[in-house]
Design a protein that fits this description.
Mean pLDDT of chain B: 87
Order of helices and strands of chain B: HHHEHEHEEH
Distance between the termini of chain B: 99 Å
Low-confidence stretches of chain A: none
Helix content of chain B: 55-70%
Shape of chain B: elongated
Strand order of the largest sheet of chain B: 2-1-3-4
CATH topology of the largest domain in chain A: Spore Coat Polysaccharide Biosynthesis Protein SpsA, Chain A
Largest sheet of chain A: 8 strands, mixed
Oligomer: heterodimer
Number of strands of chain B: 4
Number of strands of chain A: 8
Shape of chain A: globular
Largest sheet of chain B: 4 strands, mixed
Distance between the termini of chain A: 48 Å
Radius of gyration of chain B: 25 Å
Strand content of chain A: 5-15%
Largest interface: A-B, 53 and 38 residues
CATH class of the largest domain in chain A: Alpha Beta
Structural class of chain B: alpha+beta
CATH superfamily of the largest domain in chain A: Spore Coat Polysaccharide Biosynthesis Protein SpsA, Chain A
Number of domains of chain A: 2
Helix content of chain A: 40-55%
Strand content of chain B: 5-15%
Radius of gyration of chain A: 22 Å
């Protein structure tokens, strides 16, 4: 084994990947019962649901239908659809709903969803603001489940964002389905150490007071749902995560759309990580020392693990002497262990979420293939970010 | 409901436990990887010894009988050892290029090459075989053109069936130093074809032409 500085750095980073994986598994083991327990608070405040909509004529109707079905007192909920300068029939679809809970607000498009969210919040009256995407629909009990997590120090609660169930999910959608389920579980694990760093656009609930305290959504970022979460964390409030307030959302169906979405997420994520890098500080507790540190380091770590595994596979494949062992180094064994732990972690996540639909081969494909896809998107995002290419929402 | 700031904490116990578990898993992974590397090195070393024993048997046979009676057998054996030795050299080279190789294994391999060269020379003399023997002296640490010259030699070997022996002069080996002394090797790369030292670098065509000429 050659111990060059680069090689030592490679092993150090592999250790940190292993450490991150073990921390997450220990959080799970330490909080097994709490993780799946629903919120217990009897909290029934007035609620404003803000739905920013830009050219969503095909989906907003179903979103509203699902909202009007939710189990919540009619006099305590208002639904504000913000038509963000749509050029299609979004406004007409909203107007066709005669329910007095539904209010249509119209504004010109300013190029960022945050403007629409803020417009809706400014016109809302509820004690709790719920943001909902116009292409997502909520489960009947979702709002009650979200509210049951609010406590005196809880400023926001995230939901369980799932891929819309349908019979003809293609391969890319199936991979994202596993990813979304895995993310629900991980966000819940992060909540155990007050480490939630994103309040997803499809469905999240906020106390109005937190907006008064930290301000509304940032209109200068392309990942406003992550930025607001980081701002809430930096103000030392808690963000809870709820695994049983389900919202179904549409996901990209093809490679190009997925790539476009992920590049936007990655670039926004990088910008936010840099903006809030000051939180890598012990005074922010686990959030500062573990979550933020790994959020920033994850870019490097993702690249490292993917590269090591890819190089190992290439080396093994190119060994022309019928002896794959020749190519094996300790770091490949470590990568293999991390891969096994990740597969185990994914399986645990799916079991805890009570998902019985996912086939084993999709879990394997997600763990192995999808990591490379995500890394590819990360590479492109880093390149575009360094190049200073303009990113539109 | 009031909104109050939350109390921040660092879960030291969690991170300490995770660090210990990670260190144990890391240790197991490293140990397993190193064991695999060790077993590969041992297997290569065993192969060097096996081929070495086969050459000793041939040498013994040649000492027992100086007549050309065994020439067919000797020539045939020499051919089969050549491919085994060449593959072994490639495997050691592959390991060296990608992750380094134990110098003692490399030294063992070079001793085997010297023995192979000496016995092949004797077989050539006694049996009138005209197998070309090429010695190639390199420095793994201080020779930018050695890799390219090696590729030219490999190409020439494939075209002529010559036996090519590569010696890394950075690895300490008395037998190899003595052999280099015989041909007054002072710079790298240096090529000796059928006991004649060649001047400068050579293309595959030049090597083939020299071997055939």
């Amino acid at each position: 084994m050659i111990l060059e500085p680069l090689r030592i750095a490679e092993y150090a980073m592999m250790f940190s990947v292993l450490f991150f994986t073990v921390v997450m598994l220990l959080i799970y083991l330490r909080n097994r019962e709490r993780i799946t327990r629903s919120g217990q608070k009897k909290y029934e405040p007035t609620v404003s649901v803000v739905i920013p909509a830009y050219n969503e004529e095909e989906t907003v109707g179903k979103t509203l239908e699902s909202l009007l079905e939710v189990d919540y007192p009619k006099d305590k909920i208002e639904i504000l659809v913000v038509d963000d300068g749509s050029t299609d029939k979004t406004a007409a679809v909203v107007r066709s709903f005669k329910d007095k809970r539904v209010v249509l607000l119209q504004k010109k498009n300013e190029g960022n969803k945050a403007f629409a969210n803020n417009h809706g919040i400014r016109h809302s009256k509820g004690e709790v603001i719920i943001t909902l995407d116009a292409d997502s629909w909520v489960a009947k009990d979702a709002i009650r489940k979200l509210l049951a997590y609010f406590d005196t120090d809880v400023a926001a609660v995230t939901s369980a964002v799932k891929v819309r169930e349908k019979d003809d999910l293609n391969f890319i959608e199936k991979l994202q389905r596993v990813e979304y389920l895995f993310t629900i579980f991980n966000r819940r694990l992060f909540a155990m150490i007050n480490g939630v760093y994103v309040t997803p656009g499809p469905l999240s609930a906020f106390r109005r007071k937190v907006f008064d305290e930290v301000g509304l959504f940032d209109t200068n970022t392309i990942m406003e749902d992550q930025e607001i979460a980081l701002r809430i964390q930096s103000a030392n409030y808690r963000i809870e995560s709820c695994m049983d307030a389900v919202v179904y959302t549409s996901v990209p169906r093809d490679f190009d759309a997925l790539m476009k979405q992920r590049i936007r997420w990655n670039r926004g994520g990088m910008q936010n990580a840099m903006k809030y890098a000051f939180m890598v500080n012990p005074k922010y507790g686990d959030f500062g020392m573990f979550v933020m540190t790994y959020s920033i380091a994850s870019i490097l770590l993702l690249l490292l693990v993917s590269t090591v595994v890819a190089v190992a596979m290439t080396k093994i494949a190119e060994t022309a002497y019928n002896d794959p062992l020749l190519a094996i180094e300790p770091i490949h064994v470590l990568s293999f262990i991390v891969l096994l732990l990740t597969i185990g972690w994914t399986v645990i996540a799916l079991r805890e979420i009570n998902d019985k639909k996912t086939k084993k081969r999709i879990v394997l494909a997600y763990t192995i293939l999808y990591c490379y896809l995500i890394t590819l998107f990360m590479f492109i995002a880093i390149f575009k970010e360094l190049k200073g290419e303009k990113q539109v929402w | 409901m009031e909104l109050q700031k939350t109390k921040r904490e660092i879960s030291w116990k969690l991170y300490t436990a995770a660090f210990i578990i990670s260190a144990i898993i890391f240790g197991i992974g490293m140990w397993t990887g190193l064991q695999i590397e060790k077993s590969v090195t041992e297997e290569l070393s065993a192969t060097v010894n096996k081929i070495d024993q086969q050459w000793i048997s041939l040498e013994t046979l040649m000492l027992m009988d100086s007549s050309p009676a065994f020439c067919d057998y000797l020539t045939q054996e020499m051919g089969s050892f050549d491919s085994e030795t060449f593959t072994l050299g490639q495997r050691i080279g592959y390991m060296e290029e990608r992750k380094g190789v134990d110098p003692s294994l490399k030294s063992e391999y070079m001793s085997l090459e010297v023995r192979d060269y000496l016995v092949a020379n004797k077989i050539n003399e006694r049996c009138g075989a005209n197998t070309s023997l090429v010695l190639y002296f390199v420095s793994s640490s201080n020779c930018s053109s050695c890799k390219e010259q090696g590729a030219q030699l490999t190409a020439a070997r494939e075209r002529t069936g010559a036996r090519v022996y590569t010696f890394d002069m950075d690895v300490k080996n008395g037998m190899v130093s003595a052999l280099a002394g015989v041909f007054k090797i002072g710079s790298y790369p240096s090529i000796v074809i059928d006991s004649e030292k060649q001047a400068g670098r050579m293309t595959a065509d030049q090597i083939v032409s020299r071997i055939n000429g």
